[in-house]
Design brief:
- The structure holds 2 protein chains of 2 kinds.
- Chain A has one domain (2-237).
- Chain A has 10 helices and no strands.
- Chain A has helices spanning 2-13, 16-34, 51-81, 84-88, 96-125, 133-157, 161-178, 190-198, 203-211, 217-237.
- In chain A, helix 6 packs antiparallel against helix 9.
- The longest helix of chain A has 31 residues, at 51-81.
- By secondary structure, chain B is an alpha/beta fold.
- Chain B folds into 2 domains: 2-214, P-loop containing nucleotide triphosphate hydrolases (Rossmann fold, 3-Layer(aba) Sandwich), CATH 3.40.50.300; 224-285, Alpha-Beta Plaits (2-Layer Sandwich), CATH 3.30.70.
- Chain B contains 11 helices and 13 strands.
- In chain B, the strands form 3 sheets. Chain B has a 6-stranded mixed beta sheet, with helices on both faces. In chain B, strands 11-12-10-13 form a 4-stranded antiparallel beta sheet.
- The radius of gyration of chain B is 24 Å and the shape is elongated.
């Protein structure tokens, strides 16, 4: 199992576009936005916070969405289309291990991406580290797993690698929108913000544990439920060839 | 001794019957060919043997195992080269072999394997940068990495140029000589004729015949043709009178003599007695192509 993970990790590193978007992009975006003086000045519109503070949780959503809804479904669907999964099933190792390895690689890449983001935020803009580290870690993991489960569901249902990419992009856009990536959440109408709180990867809980206290257990419960349901349906309906 | 036994195998997809009552045995240490046109049910047959598909009827034993029930154990004894199965674009050849080797309790030394397959200098190359023939050899290497007793190779040389095809053939012979039983699925006559110890001929899901290549050919009686250009005028009657000869045709300067038995000897004796030399002499014998047409009523080549 370890060898599958290290091999998949190497393959991830050899795909420059993925490394850039999933690992480096949130940090780059923070540095670019933070270069604009208005966005690093406390503003009553942002509840007397700076824009960059309020935007941190959305940058985490970027990482999670790229990994779970872009990299995962396209890689898995391509592996199926090219017969990589089928070849696995002729060996003593079940191809499901390859999918597990994908998720493990995503978790590692996600951790690196977010540590990088935190370090840049702290050093350059003096943004606090998460106030509730444990709650943040838990939300991050549940957010990652829930999006991965949805990503695998897309890969399970899409007939080809190309259509998996297309379907995943639609979900990706929605997640980015509700996650406040395109429009900051304080500009969204209240009901959209509330929907965003409950949708994976749980931007509300990320924000709460970063800037406030412990995340709302109901939000976390919803993420766990999405993970369990989407994961089970994906596992039941997955085609290996 | 039989290492694979297939009895009355039936496999349907929806209502279409893909394999219809196929039976054969494969002996230990031979190259066993499964030959037939595209869509004949060859791949479905071997996929049932590999345990990748559940048969709708019949029994299969592979090295004493039931491919479905003893899946896990079978995987350690059977190496499979699948039709159209690739690797991730950016994986290096050495990494792929190292990875797949880790799946087996007692794997082959992959460096040694690459050496034998002529890929030693490609260990650091990414899969996407390999030629078609090299990809095919990697695929063979992966089928052999677990030191299998049986290797199933499906449409091994499809899409390869003639030189790569011939190189691959000698590899398959090496594999057999190293003691591995080989099941070779192909729709190339020439490949089956050249490589296989025995061949199962499959058409429209049914087994047409199982025999050695020579045995299959001999079913198309022993008819042969001798084609030559006589160096001096020759009375055709002299040939027609021979008991071995059934027909003599003139094609310009060439004579084509059709017959059976020791046709060549009979013809050349007549020529020698008349002090005539046969120039451009060619003997044409019935091949697997003719056998296939005779046995199925249609041509194999698409």
């Amino acid at each position: 199992m370890l060898k599958i993970v290290t091999t998949e990790w190497k393959l991830f590193l050899r795909d420059p576009s993925m490394v850039v978007f999933a690992v480096l992009f949130p940090t780059i975006l923070l540095l670019v936005l933070g270069a604009i003086p208005a966005l690093r000045t406390p503003d009553p519109n942002f509840g007397n916070q700076r824009f960059v503070d309020a935007y941190m949780s959305s940058l985490v959503v970027v990482t999670l969405a790229f990994l779970g809804l872009n990299k995962l479904p396209t890689t898995v669907a391509t592996y199926r289309e090219k017969g990589v999964l089928r070849r696995f099933s002729t060996t003593p190792v079940h191809p499901a291990r390859l999918l597990v390895a994908q998720v493990v690689v995503n978790v590692i890449a996600g951790v690196i991406s977010i540590v990088l983001l935190m370090v840049a935020a702290r050093l350059v803009f003096d943004i606090d580290l998460p106030h509730h580290p444990l709650g943040f870690l838990l939300t991050f993991l549940l957010g990652m797993l829930s999006l991965s489960a949805i990503g695998l569901l897309v890969a399970a249902w899409a007939p080809t690698a190309r259509s998996a990419g297309g379907w995943a992009t639609v979900v990706f856009m929605l997640v980015m929108f509700f996650g406040g990536v395109y429009l900051p959440r304080f500009l969204l109408p209240d009901f959209l913000t509330v929907i965003g709180d409950y949708l994976p990867p749980g931007v509300g809980a990320l924000q709460e544990s970063w800037l406030g206290g412990s995340p709302d257990p109901v939000h976390l419960g919803v993420l766990a439920l999405v993970t369990a349901v989407a994961g089970t349906v994906a596992a039941k309906s997955f085609r290996w060839e | 001794m039989a290492i694979i036994e297939v009895v009355d195998l039936v496999k349907r997809y929806d209502r279409k019957v893909a394999v219809d009552g196929v039976s054969f045995t494969v002996d230990e240490g031979e190259i066993f060919g499964i030959l037939g046109p595209n869509g004949a049910g060859k791949t479905t047959t071997v996929e049932c043997v590999e345990g990748l598909r559940t048969p709708d009827g019949g029994t299969i034993r592979v090295d004493g195992l039931d491919p479905r029930r003893d899946r896990a154990e079978l995987r350690t004894r059977l190496g499979v080269q699948l039709q159209q199965s690739e690797l991730p674009d950016r994986i290096r050849v050495g990494e792929a072999l190292d990875l797949y080797a880790s799946f087996y309790r007692d794997p082959a030394d992959w460096r040694d394997l690459l050496d034998r397959l002529g890929l030693a200098d490609r260990a650091g190359t990414e899969y996407r940068k390999l030629s078609g023939g090299q990809k095919q050899r990697v695929s063979i290497a992966l089928a052999l990495i677990g030191k299998p007793k049986i290797a199933v190779l499906d449409e091994l040389t499809t899409g390869l140029d003639p030189q790569a095809r011939r190189d691959t053939w000698s590899l398959v012979e090496q594999v057999r000589d190293s003691g591995v039983t080989v099941v070779l699925v192909t729709h190339f006559m020439e490949e089956a004729e050249r490589l296989c110890d025995r061949i199962a001929l499959i058409d429209e899901g049914k087994l047409v015949a199982v025999d050695t290549p020579a045995g299959l050919v001999s079913r198309v009686d022993g008819e042969q043709r001798v084609r030559f250009r006589p160096t001096a005028p020759l009375d055709v009657k002299l040939l027609e009178e021979l008991p071995e000869v059934s027909q003599v045709e003139k094609h310009g300067p060439q004579l084509v003599v059709t017959g059976t038995g020791n046709l060549l000897h009979a013809v050349t004796s007549v020529l020698a007695r008349n002090h005539i030399v046969a120039a451009d002499l060619r003997i044409e014998q019935a091949g697997l192509d003719d056998a296939f047409i005779r046995l199925t009523g249609r041509a194999l080549t698409e």
